[in-house]
Amino acid sequence: MLERLIEIAKQAGAALAGIQGSDLEAREKSRGQLVTRADEASHALIEAQLERSFSGIPRVMEEQANKGLPSRPYFVVDELDGTIPFARGMREWAVMLAYVEDRPTAGVIFLPAWEILIAAEKGRGCRLNGKQVRLGTARGLADAVVGLELNLYLSAEHRRRFIGRLSERALSIRSLACAGAAVAELLLGRTDLYVNCRGGKVWDFASGALAVEEAGGVATRIDGTPIAWDELEMDVLLAANAQIADEALNIALS
Questions:
Q1: Angle between the 179-188 and 202-214 helix axes, to the nearest 10 degrees?
Q2: DSSP H/E element including 165
Q3: Per-residue pLDDT tens digits for 12-49
Q4: 43, 34, 129, 11: which is closest to 88 by C-alpha?
Q5: CA-to-CA distance for 108 and 130, rounded, in angstroms?
Q6: What phi and psi values does residue 206 have, to the nearest 5 degrees?
Q7: Are the C-beta atoms of residues 158 and 149 closer than 8 Å to each other?
Q8: Which of 108, 104, 63 is nearest to 213 (CA)?
Q9: Which domains does the chain have, with CATH numbers?
């Protein structure tokens, strides 16, 4: 299954790369959320390929109506993660697919402009461009670069606890507006922590959480509880090691 998901992600990524820079016919589907003909083209391609290879398994895809999550197992798909950066001609965008049983068990993140392919499978590790990834840096929060998702959906409490408190303690803060790119930076050792408090959905996090855990890192909710994978709307905290995760949670939740 993982090899087939990789093939599908590569096909969608190539199609998207060919569309970027053209007239995307971008429009707002909701405040702060864009959709373009590139999203729709990727959706059509991935939907057809999944139906061809895995007919009968439900799909949860960003560019379709989702009233909730189906009974597991199911596929979860972000046809174009980072639509706003993509529409602005930036390089921070990705295609993400995952297979979810009791939790994600196979996942792919493909960033064509970065020439990065991340593939993870439960119990079998995480690979970035074919090389095994092992996290576990000894850095604590004071020496950490933190990825934070900054968007219109953050509450004042989120801003106070996570943006305010973490920015006071960490070495530096950055925001890419693309969960796939944020996970790639964490796996590459460029950042040490990624927090997305609000506005994300299951398709933003399934592949990334699996990849980070299989690389030896930590994936939790922002309140420190395990991710249950039973809700469409989600938040997530991904860390290179337990020390950084615990420090961040203690600071934000105190």
A1: 10
A2: helix 165-169
A3: 999 999 999 999 999 988 777 889 999 999 999 999 99
A4: 34
A5: 12
A6: -60, -50
A7: no
A8: 104
A9: 2-132 (3.30.540.10), 141-253 (3.40.190.80)
Q: What one-character DSSP code corresponds to residue 226?
A: P
Write the CA distances from 100 to 6, 67, 172, 239, integer angstroms. 16, 17, 33, 21
Q: Which two tokens stand for residue 27?
A: 């429009």
Q: Give me the residue label for tokens 């997305």.
A: 196
Q: Give CA–CA dist 6/48, Å, rounded.
A: 15
Nearest to 42 by CA among 91, 68, 81: 81
Give the number of other Cβ atoms within 10 Å of residue 124's Cβ. Answer: 13
Q: Could you tell me the pTM of the whole model?
A: 0.96
Q: Is 164 exposed, middle or buried (0-12, 13-18, 19+ CB in 10 A)?
A: exposed
Nearest to 159 by CA among 118, 103, 198: 198
